[in-house]
């Protein structure tokens, strides 16, 4: 049996000065290639959860397994390398590298992936082309917002990750563009065979997701999914 | 082309082009200054050593060997005391390749006049580098050397400075002009006076040798002795006869035949200029035994000694340029540190993409090292240009030929120090990058 793309058990995280945990999850499973929308209001810990799943924050307690690997059992260096090869991330503000071309932004993700360097350029350009970017050498931040979104998605999936984390990717888009962006992310992840955990506070984003989970429902006393 | 850490470093530096360029220039100036000082220090010492020519011993009655060299080789002042012709003959009786008598004391428009013999041009080599063995013999650019009384030959700079040409006639001053300060401190004394009654004809102009001799005029000894004899006879003559008094070579007495120095070179087996002759020590000891009041100088040793004396100033200059290098490293640190605030998001993105903290740290240190390396490369270029410019000025203004020498050891050491200091300067901003909280800097702006 193949391991779940993401498995969370007893995860608890609290910022240093905070009295209460901002993330508290009893158990959560995301199957391989599955897409899930994680809903919660603003400031309820969605981004924090994704940062925990990416291994960018260390939990107070609990286990996060990606592709069967316990993230926090890995040392910091190995965890970084693991994230580089197994986890893709998409952000609301896209977070493209300014001053770098679209292809370079995508190739940056391949630098830690273990993919031979000789293949980086071809792979990046091919991924961009599949997502509709025909000008890979244009500076990424000079592209239209929609094209930048595609570059961000290409960067997230170019390493053929097990899991893609998308943090409010449509929050700053109008409804039509948000719909397009969601379709793009979902289809790209599906094509890449990656599981998708997408967070949003907007109920409208639920359309098209077979699985929608409220973050509040994952807390120990109300664990479950919709 | 694949994306590499080098691409990231290059783009990062390129994105702050003005800051990067000014920091590189700061490092380059520091490296250039340091290398120029080191090069000029070595080169100028060699140039001064070279100026001693093929003389192994300089014999005089100066107060010390160093003063003897400064006066006899570098024409600093006329020697205070002199040697008789009999004393010269004693020195010349020792085996030698040459023992050339010289007399300093006259001048022309502030330039020294050296009275000597024709051997000065035929035997003595004016420029000789004891380290490389390279030598520059006398070459007559125009005319010929003197072969009878009251003929004068001009050094290259003396000719250029005075504008004299072959065939011109001049009168010499008996004595060196003194500065106002010197006159004030010694209470005046005898001012130099012109001997209009004796006209010297310019018969030759020499090629430049890159030594202090280039700014001198050369004439024969008997002519100089005539001036001395004339002064002696005039002082002894009744006032009414002084104006009409004439003095010729026939009026010279043995007491007039005085010299101020002897350029001595011991005979060598091979006849070349290189190598040291153990015989020199024997000659020196013998001369000193015969006349303890003689000052016997080894010019190359004295020049080395002089540079050791001024070595402390060298050290201060080198230390100052090291401080400039250090301040340039601080400049790099500040430039990178100040850029960190703008780059935290980029660092956070790289971290999300899997870059380990250590790798991010390395990228920043590499940026710093690249600035140091670029500064070092440009600095070496600046030093090459700078030393050549300084050498040109020294040659044009002082007639001192300095060939800038960049020893690979010093050049590498300074260049590597620059890279090392720059790398160290990058540590603080690299630590800032290392500690960048990723999650915090991925949030939407505002």
Explain this structure.
The complex is a heterodimer of chains A (226) and B (446). Chain A has helices spanning 46-53, 76-86, 102-110, 117-130, 145-157, 175-192; strands at 6-13, 23-30, 35-39, 61-66, 69-70, 87-91, 163-167, 195-200, 211-214. With 226 residues, chain A is α/β, with parallel strands linked by helices. Chain B is an alpha+beta fold and 446 residues long. In chain B, 52% of the residues lie in helices and 14% in strands. Chain B is built from 15 helices and 16 strands. In chain B, a hairpin with a 2-residue loop joins strand 3 (98-108) and strand 4. In chain B, helix 2 (17-50) packs antiparallel against helix 11 (299-309). Chain B starts with a helix and ends in a 12-residue tail after the last helix. Classes of the chains: A alpha/beta (226), B alpha+beta (446). The interface between A and B is medium-sized, with 40 and 30 residues.
Largest interface, chains and sizes: A-B, 40 and 30 residues
Number of strands of chain A: 9
Percent strand of chain A equals: 15-25%
Report the biggest beta sheet of chain B as strand number plus sense, adding barrel if it closes. 12 strands, mixed
Number of helices of chain B: 15
Structural class of the helices, strands and pairings of chain A? alpha/beta
| Oligomer type | heterodimer
Key phrases:
heterodimer; A: 226 residues; alpha/beta; 5-stranded parallel sheet; 6 helices; 9 strands; 22% strand; B: 446 residues; alpha+beta; 12-stranded mixed sheet; two-stranded antiparallel sheet; 15 helices; 14% strand; elongated
